[in-house]
Amino acid sequence: MTQNLSFKVRGMSCRHCKMSVEKSVGALPGVKEAVADVAAGQVTVAGEALDPVKILSAIEELGYIVEK
Questions:
Q1: Within 13 Å of residue 59, how many CA atoms lie on the same side as its CB?
Q2: pLDDT tens for each residue of 34-46
Q3: Which of 25, 38, 46, 52 is most buried by its number of CB atoms within 10 A?
């Protein structure tokens, strides 16, 4: 069953930010799609058996702040 998770992220400001987040989160197990919206400050993740903690960690390791 496909899950959709959304995270409010601060600190993304450009196309490079978008690509970095999408690549990092997209490499996690179970993730089928990761879309970062720089203007909205949001990352949406779709997949199966998603681990929100791993997704948060991947985003924060890049230096962005995930609002909880």
A1: 28
A2: 999 999 999 999 9
A3: 25
